[in-house]
Each structure stands twice: as C-alpha cells, then as structure tokens.
Specification:
Layout: H1 9-15, H2 21-32, E1 36-40, H3 43-47, E2 51-52, E3 55-60, H4 63-70, E4 75-78, E5 84-92, H5 105-117, E6 120-124, E7 131-135, E8 138-142, H6 145-178, H7 184-203, H8 205-211, H9 216-226, H10 229-240, H11 245-253, H12 257-260, H13 263-271, H14 284-287, H15 294-304, H16 307-311, H17 315-322, H18 326-341
Parallel strand pairs: 1-4
Antiparallel strand pairs: 1-6, 2-5, 3-5, 4-5, 6-7, 7-8
C-alpha cells in the first residue's frame, strides 16, 4: 500500500474554508459557545497510546453529527481524509514535556498532540471564540471571512499601485531601448517592481486558500493584477542578464524586501555593474511579438548580437534564416518599433 500523502497546513486550510462541511461545524461550535478539540487520526496517534477512554463511533462524517458530538467533553478523532468520525469523548494525553506557547488546557493539549503525533488538530475556544489550527509544529489562527477580505482588499490596492509603477517603468524602458539610451538603472527599476509584486502576491496566497469559494471575485482581481508580470520579468532577465535564466531568477527571488528597495543592490547582484552603465537588450522580448519561432529568434539574435542591430536588419540579412518570409518579418519589426514609440504596445 502506497504511503499516505503528507498533509500540509494549506491542505488543512482548504478543509476548513468557508462553505466546506468542516467549516460549517466550526461556525456552529463557535456560535454555540461550547468549544471543541478535533484531532485528525495518524499512525503515531495510535502507536503512542496518546488517547484514553471515550467511545468508538466509526460513522460517516457529517457537519451535524460532528457538531452534536462536540457538545460532549473530551476530544473527537476523525479520519485523516475527513470521511469518518472515529472516536468521541476521548481524553488526549500528550507528552507534557513537549513545549507549548499556549496557556489554555485545550489549546496546550492540541499543540502538543499535533507535534507528538505529527497530525492536524483543530481547537475551538468556548470563551474567546477563537479557532486555532495545528499541524505538526505549525500553528495558525483561523480568521473570519470579513477580516480576510479586508486584508486581501488592502493588499490588492497595494498591488494595483505597484502594477501601475511597473507598467510605467516598462513603457519607459521600451522607449529608451528604441532610442539606444537604456541604462542598467532603467532595467533595475522594472525588475524591482516585478519582484515586489511577486513577493506581495506570495504573501497573500494563503488568504485565498483560507477563503475558499468566498474569495472567487477577489481572486479574479488578484489574477488580473499578476497577469504577465512573471513572464515580463523572465523576458527582461533573458534579454539583459549575463547569467542563465534559472540562476538569474533564483538570485533575484532571494533578494530580501529591504534589498529590493535599493537599486544599487539589484544592479550589483544581477549585472555586477553601476546603475548609470548603458546597456542594450538581446531582443528576445521584442521578437516575441513577431511571427517568428523561438528557434528563429535565437538565430536572429546570434546573427545581430542585440536589439539595436536586429532593428537594422534588412530582408537579405534574414533570408538564410527565414527564407521567403524575410520581407514580412522585417516589416513586422518596423511596425512593432513604431507601436512601442507611440506607446501602443508593451513588450
């Protein structure tokens, strides 16, 4: 039998997002001021004799049946796939030497058994109406839908502002490229904003997991704000970085937020030069707007050397690569150049 896939905190959040059967139970328990301790079954839980008393249920899981069992004292043990309620009114006896940051008995027990049995536990406080999720050594306070939506809305407003700055910097870089006046500083400004946007987006991903279906509209807005950001960043790295795309991406991603705010740091790490150094792109980003293939683009760039020379190519220069399409592609290149200058296209 294949080993069970390890559950993660995000998996647990999906199980308790609004609209799910487990969230229905949690909300009912919170409203009823009764508290609960719900433990997911695991091999370690059974092997280490961490439970005492109670009675065996082994019935199909439903929100109603789980809620009724929460009215009794003791913990409830459910199957790891959330299909069966296994035991109820059970005393959980974790190792008391396991460290815990909690103060309440229920939450302290939940944190310790999650660590000891390498499992997931849901603890609901009757007095404080607080729900805490534990998974192995991780702890997470479940928030209300309204609070998460407010947090997401605030972050989306920040993303919108960063997106506007990114697009303005990208348009400026495009125009400077056509004028052969681009500098490392201009490139770093675009990379800076793209990476800030991607870092902010990562920080709010868990919010959407916790919201479940309630976050659909906000997620559509979020997805639209991220559209083509990573693609543009990768194309710029391929156009300008002396490193391989994989190495350049890793290096840029590893720059901390504080470091991203300093353009000099980005210039030194990514290009090993000063901000005022002039530079020219290879042309991959520009040629992506033509009808040429990726292989043909690589051949054209090897022939020309950089974008400035690509724009100057004549049909006869491209004939060995494009055959009878050289005239058409040259016209495309001129047309794209005009569109960029007139800010009608963003590479």
């Amino acid at each position: 039998m294949a080993p069970q896939k390890e559950k993660t905190l995000n998996d647990l959040l999906k199980l308790v997002s609004p609209g799910t059967p487990m969230r229905t139970t949690i909300d009912d328990v919170v409203r009823s001021n009764i508290g609960a301790l719900i433990v997911f079954d695991s091999p370690q839980l059974r092997e280490q004799n961490t439970t005492e008393g109670g009675f065996r249920i082994n019935s199909r899981f439903t929100p109603q049946s789980l809620f009724e069992l929460c009215k009794m004292d003791g913990a409830i043990i459910i199957s790891s796939d959330l299909k069966r309620i296994l035991q109820a009114n059970t005393l959980i006896t974790p190792d008391n030497t396991i460290p815990s940051v909690e103060t309440g008995i229920r939450h302290k027990t939940a944190e310790r058994i999650a660590k000891q049995a390498q499992t997931s536990v849901i603890a609901i406080s009757a007095r404080r109406k607080k729900t805490t999720l534990y998974h192995s050594s991780f702890r997470y306070h479940l928030r209300s839908t309204e609070k998460i939506l407010r947090n997401i809305d605030s972050n989306l407003q920040i993303l919108e502002k960063q997106r506007d700055i990114f697009e303005n910097n990208l348009v400026n870089l495009n125009i400077l490229e056509m004028s052969e006046m681009a500098s490392i500083k201009d490139v770093c400004k675009v990379l800076q904003r793209s990476e800030i946007i991607l870092k902010i987006s990562e920080s709010i991903k868990r919010n959407f997991t916790e919201l479940g279906r309630e976050g659909t509209i906000a997620y559509m807005r979020y997805h639209e704000l991220l559209k083509n950001i990573e693609k543009s960043r990768n194309e710029i790295l391929r156009d300008y970085s002396p490193l391989s795309l994989k190495k350049a991406k890793t290096l840029l991603t590893n720059i901390k937020f504080d470091g991203l705010l300093e353009l000099e740091i980005i210039a030194r790490l990514m290009f090993n030069c000063q901000l005022d150094n002039s530079t020219s792109p290879k042309g991959y980003r520009f040629l992506a707007h033509t009808t040429t293939t990726k292989r043909e683009n690589s051949q054209i760039i090897r022939l020309a050397g950089n974008l400035n020379n690509v724009i100057k190519l004549e049909p006869k220069d491209l004939e060995p690569i494009l055959k009878n399409r050289s005239q058409t592609v040259c016209e495309e290149i001129k047309h794209i150049q005009e569109q960029i200058i007139n800010e009608k296209i963003t590479c």
